[in-house]
Amino acid sequence: MVLATQSKPIRKHARNLCFLITCAIGINVLWNNVSYRYISARIVAMSTFKVSRRDFRPLGTTLPSVLRSKHSSKPTQFRIQQIADEGNVSNVYPELLRTPIKRIMTRYNHSKLEQQKVYQKSNKTKLEQQKIYQKSNNSKIEEQKVCRNETSPQCQEFKRRRRSEMYDEILEYYRIRENETKDSFVNLHRYGYHLDSNACSRRPDVVILVHSKFDHFGKRKQIRNTYAANRTVQGINFATVFFLGEPSIQEMKPDIWRSKRTKQEETERQEGLPGNLDEIRKEIYTESATFGDIVMGNFTDSYRNLTIKHIMALNWALSHCPHVVYIAKADDDVIVNPFSLAKYLTGTHCNRSGLLTCIVPKLRAPMRSKRMKWFLSKTEYPFTLYPVWCLGLGELMTRDVAETLLKMSRDVRTFWIDDVYVTGFLRHKAGLSLIDMTRITGKDPTFFTLPDYLRNQTFLAKWKQMITK
Question: Which coarse location class describes where this protein primarily resides (predicted)?
Fold first, then answer.
C-alpha cells in the first residue's frame, strides 16, 4: 500500500520529464531548420547579389525576400518585408530554399573570380600608366642634358626620335587586346539609320560631311542658303549631307562651355528651335523629308559621341557614294568655300589618291585644366603629346584615305576627341602623310573658315566676303 502511494509522484515526474525532453527535441529541430534556411539565404544574398549586412534584422521581426519580376524568373532585388500576414517561414524564401548548397557555393566562387579579374585588370592598367610616367620623366631628364642648345642638330634629332617613340607607345596603349570588347560603333561599324539621304544619287565628285547637332536648325538653314546651294562649280559636282544623332533631353541643356558665346552666334543657333523634345524630333523628320540631306544614326547626339559620328560619316560616305573621289568633313559653324576647293581640285598639283589635308595645330599637348572643354586627366590620357592631328575646322581627303582610316579603326580603342582619334591615332597607324592646308592656300585657309563672331559678323556676311574676293 505504501509502495503504491509512492509510485504516483514518480510516474507524474516521469511524464513531465518526457514532455520536457520532447519539447526540447522539437524546438531544436525547428531551430536548426529555420537557421539553415536563413543562413542559406544570407550566403546567396551577400555573395551573389551583394546585399549588405544592414539589410538583415532579427529573425523574429522581419526577413529578406527575393522579389521576382513579372516578365522574368530571375531575382530582381532584395528588400526587407514583414511576414506578419505570411505566417509560414517556408514562404519567405520560395526559391532560395530549393537552391542546393553546391549552387550557392558556385555562385559565391563565381562572383569572387569576377572581382579578382576586375582587380587584376585595374592593377595592370595602373602599372602601364606608371611605366609611361616613369619613361616620360626619364626622357625629360635626358632632354635637359642633350638639349642645352635648342637649335643644335643633336637636340632636334633627339626630339624627333622621342616623338616617334611616343606615337608608337600611344598606339600600343590604345590597341585592342584579345580579351577586350570592341565598340559596336567605332570598331565594328554596326550603325543603324533612323533617317537616310539620297544625296549621292546625283553622282557627285565631292561629298561634304557636315557634323551637326539635332537642335541646330538655324545653322543647317544657313548652310543650305550659302555654300550647299552651289552644287556645281567649275565642272566639280558637290553634295552636302548633315549627320546627327538621336535627340536627348540632357543635351538640350545650355552649354556651359559656351558661356562666352556672342549674341549673334546664340541668335543663329536658336533660330527655328522648337520648344520640347517631341517637337524637335518632328521638326527633324519634316526637315529630312523636305531637303533629303540628313542622316541620323542610332546613338545619342552628344559631345562625347563625336568619334562615333565621325566614323559613321566616313562609313556612310564609302557605302552610299561609290563614285565620290574626294570627301570633305566640316562642322556646322564652318563655312566651306566650294570655289576655292574646285580651283584646287582642278589644278595640276592636286592628287587623286593619298591626299589628306587640313589645318595642323601648333599646340599638340592635352588640356590638363578642368576649366577647359577638352580637359583630359592623366588617367584618361597619360601621355604629354598628341600625334600630329587636324583641327576640327575641316579636312579634305581622297576616297582611298577614308577607306584606310576606316580599316584602321577596327583595332584601335575609341577616344572621345574625334579629330585626334581619326587624323591622329588612325592616320599614324596607317602611316599616312598629312599636308598642312596653309601650304596650299597660304596664310588664309580659304577651304574652311569661321565667321568672326567676336565682331558680330554673321554667317551670311562672311560668306559674301569670301565669294567676292
Answer: Golgi
| DSSP letters for 5-25 | HHHHHHHHHHHHHHHHHHHHH
CA distance 400 to 432: 11
Euclidean distance between the first and the last CA atom of the chain, given in angstroms as a whole number: 141
Q: With left for phi above 0 and alpha for psi between -120 and 50, is residue 354 left, alpha or beta?
A: left
- Could you tell me if 93 and 117 lie in one domain? no
- The overall average pLDDT reported for the chain is 75
**In terms of domains, do 87 and 128 share one?**
no
The pLDDT of residue 8 is above 70: no
Question: 380 in a domain, yes or no?
Answer: yes
CB 320 within 8 A of CB 295: no
Q: How far apart are CA 14 and CA 1, in angstroms?
A: 21
Provide DSSP, 300-331: E--GGGHHHHHHHHHHHHHHH-TT--EEEEEE
Asked if the structure places residue 181 within a domain, the reply is no
Same domain flag for 349 and 276: yes
Do both 462 and 402 map to the same domain? Answer: yes
Domain that holds residue 63: 2-99
**Each residue of 162-173: pLDDT tens digit?**
788 888 888 988
Does 167 share its domain with 88?
no
* Helices of type H across 97-198: 101-146, 153-173
**187 vs 252, which has greater pLDDT?**
187
Kindly state whether residue 184 falls inside one of the protein's structural domains.
Answer: no
Is 14 among the domain residues?
A: yes
Say yes or no: 90 and 116 in one domain: no
Q: How far apart are CA 220 and CA 28, in angstroms?
A: 79
- 286's enclosing H/E stretch is helix 277-291
CB 334 within 8 A of CB 422: no
> Where are any strands of DSSP class E within 266-309?
294-300
Return the half-sphere exposure (C-beta side, CA atoms, 13 A cut-off) of residue 301: 23
Looking at the structure, do residues 95 and 122 belong to the same domain, yes or no?
no
Residue 327: pLDDT band (50, 70, 90) is: very high
Which residues, in sequence order, are bridge partners of residue 82?
62
Instruction: Please tell me the distance from the alpha carbon of residue 432 to that of residue 421, in angstroms, as a whole number.
Output: 14
